[in-house]
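On clarity, I found the account of how folds are encoded harder to follow than it need be. For illustration, here is how one protein appears when written out as sequence plus structure tokens:

:::
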Amino acid sequence: MPTAEVPMKQGLGYEPCTFMTVEKDFGTPDDFREMINESHRHGLAVLIDQVLTLNSSKSRSPWYNSQI
């Protein structure tokens, strides 16, 4: 389940355009928060494996692009 919004559906969660929201096909940030809280209520830990090295060019700031 991608934990960040991904611009292309075939990206499988890689190359997110933003790390600040959940992929909309999987719900809202509130849905994600509720899933985590419900998991904790049932004694389950939630681990997030997020690849931070593969970013979409849409997520890169002007500063990043000026350094290339």
In short: The radius of gyration is 14 Å. Residues 9-67 form one domain.
